[in-house]
Amino acid sequence: xxxxxxxxxxxxxxxxxxxxxxxxxxxxxxxxxxxxxxxxxxxxxxxxxxxxxxxxxxxxxxxxxxxxxxxxxxxxxxxxxxxxxxxxxxxxxxxxxxxxxxxxxxxxxxxxxxxxxxxxxxxxxxxxxxxxxxxxxxxxxxxxxxxxxxxxxxxxxxxxxxxxxxxxxxxxxxxxxxxxxxxxxxxxxxxxxxxxxxxxxxxxxxxxxxxxxxxxxxxxxxxxxxxxxxxxxxxxxxxxxxxxxxxxxxxxxxxxxxxxxxxxxxxxxxxxxxxxxxxxxxxxxxxxxxxxxxxxxxxxxxxxxxxxxxxxxxxxxxxxxxxxxxxxxxxxxxxxxxxxxxxxxxxxxxxxxxxxxxxxxxxxxxxxxxxxxxxxxxxxxxxxxxxxxxxxxxxxxxxxxxxxxxxxxxxxxxxxxxxxxxxxxxxxxxxxxxxxxxxxxxxxxxxxxxxxxxxxxxxxxxxxxxxxxxxxxxxxxxxxxxxxxxxxxxxxxxxxxxxxxxxxxxxxxxxxxxxxxxxxxxxxxxxxxxxxxxxxxxxxxxxxxxxxxxxxxxxxxxxxxxxxxxxxxxxxxxxxxxxxxxxxxxxxxxxxxxxxxxxxxxxxxxxxxxxxxxxxxxxxxxxxxxxxxxxxxxxxxxxxxxxxxxxxxxxxxxxxxxxxxxxxxxxxxxxxxxxxxxxxxxxxxxxxxxxxxxxxxxxxxxxxxxxxxxxxxxxxxxxxxxxxxxxxxxxxxxxxxxxxxxxxxxxxxxxxxxxxxxxxxxxxxxxxxxxxxxxxxxxxxxxxxxxxxxxxxxxxxxxxxxxxxxxxxxxxxxxxxxxxxxxxxxxxxxxxxxxxxxxxxxxxxxxxxxxxxxxxxxxxxxxxxxxxxxxxxxxxxxxxxxxxxxxxxxxxxxxxxx
Length: 898
Prior knowledge:
This protein is mainly alpha-helical. The chain has a domain at 806-898. 62% of the residues lie in helices and 1% in strands. The chain contains 37 helices and 4 strands. Helix 1 (103-150) packs antiparallel against helix 3, helix 14 (458-465) packs across helix 15 and helix 16 (489-503) packs parallel to helix 18 (532-552). The longest helix has 48 residues, at 103-150. 38% of the residues are buried. Residues 1-101 are annotated as: Disordered. The chain crosses the membrane at residues 129-149, 258-278, 284-307.
């Protein structure tokens, strides 16, 4: 893929000063591998405003040519650099550009098969040539070695000739004979050098043959048959290719000719040494030929380094070029752009040190291989556009940035537009789908960095932002502008406008687009540099929109949109330091979804007006917060005490206001809410009255055992030592009959419900009698409460419960009878006391001698005396005195009274 003359200069990303009235970012975005976030000029269009009701944006001062009204606008045809990886209608779903069956992996597999076949076939043919030449050279060299090796061995003929020479000299009177002239002979040292050089040459030649045969086996093992989804096939091929390079297999294969060339050099050197002392002219001629051959040899290696178009290509040249290049993965035609901080933090990947291989690194290197190595523009464009579908927590983005993906994406985005330089000098959109993909890829690749959209191509981005016929593309363009305009609140408001229109059904936005908008809002609030008043105003507008998003996705519990909205709501409402790098993982977001939502929703409940939340949205808050009660109850150890307290306080307020009730939330959730509220949080007298009334309404309308049990237990706590207002609310809401009905239901369903119901009634009686004794001015109101109590079925139910089951005697004497005794003092003439005395006396006789027996008799004695109008020496007989009264005495007095 050839780059056009366009290249975004580094100066377009330089930060500019910001006025001192801007505050520091409220949140933290920590990434130790990224350059720090810097302030810069806004990329938002000057004069662009957004309606406060989040309607369509008002484009002031924008030429009409910037706003195409349909996809059929007449525009110039795509140029040669226009990339169209797929036909319309055959593209991947948004956000699925790198899924298991995405088209980019099928493209990668096809391209890899072609490249691997070409690579292995070239290597195989080269190795075959080497093997043929090695065989011929070794045969010739062996012939020379056989002859030269004989010169190193002692010759028997030489010994015989020496002895004959001595014998002849003795025969001629011991005179030394004149030796005959002989040809020049090589010295022993020269012979050793010649043999040494030729034996080394033979070793190099045979080693070349051995390694060549091994390399053939490596190449055969490199191309196995692979099955599975396209993504898995692509990962396996890329992993094999990375290991092939990490173990320097290409270097070894490229070095095989060099080893053979060394063997040839050693052979020539040995030949020159052997001829040096024999025939100088022959030696010089051989030396000249040898020198010329190797000058040509080295020239064929180094000339292509200086002149890339030189036809004298050599395998060693490619290896030297890789060694001399600062980045082996960078293609010469793709200019790189890297800061000093990025250079220092460059990732060095060694496949031998990664077992198993990281999937993210494999995917990143596969895409980098595709857009850097492929000569097909469409293939390279498909790889660049597929970056848009990488998951949010993709950990190998730096690998793609180091491979030069960012300038290529910017160039690809520019190629989706045509700039008319003849008339109006305006940009016209050619390919909106590809422009959207490039824009998303740019945002994915620059996530967590200080990169901002280049000023050179900001006008095409504005054109894409105004595309009414493609709301997803326009929304993505707005996200890119907002992420590059932290000093412009209008760009953030426009993102809220898209979410509001999507929630209202005015536009249809894909799930991937909604997640992108929500993540952009979170990033903007984290990095925003605006006055506090603007931030608060934006929060007031953002919270209702986010709540509507949560309400629309309430049935999609595993939706990415829901988790993204929860994080954005937490950031907007709580305003605490947030490390967005921690929440890049979808698993992390879902794992902390409950904690984030509890914090955010509780903040809204505390101050709904601050966030622009009114009645309808408060119902949504109540429903969402009620759903969180179940995990808190089931996994209470997971949530800290502070968080449980916050949730209990907010749920109490919402429940008292009637926003969490039967019919609004499911029964099982309501039961968990009531369980969560026990014991109830601190409430004022007014809130206690409302809370009691709501509990009674729930008790009357629900038959769910969990709801009934926890409602009765909550009433017991609220009615214990309560004020007159609370007890009056309990009576006026028909609480007495509701609790008595629960006690009767407990006779069939639950013994525990019976106990709790009777305790609740006794707690009410104790509170009312205490108020009666403490304040004489309130007797009229309390009398009406006692009338309702005595006219109800409470005492009949109490007597039937005591008579029908065996209860713990201390429960009766310690919790039930004390309150009843005080009521008997206030209403001694009530008709219920005779039945009460008889029932409890029979119950006491069945539990003679058990713990609480004497206390029970004491309480019954007081009731008997009060109901018989006998004078009491004290308000209540002491337990010690009554304890000495035998059961027979108590029976005789009862019979006399009868």
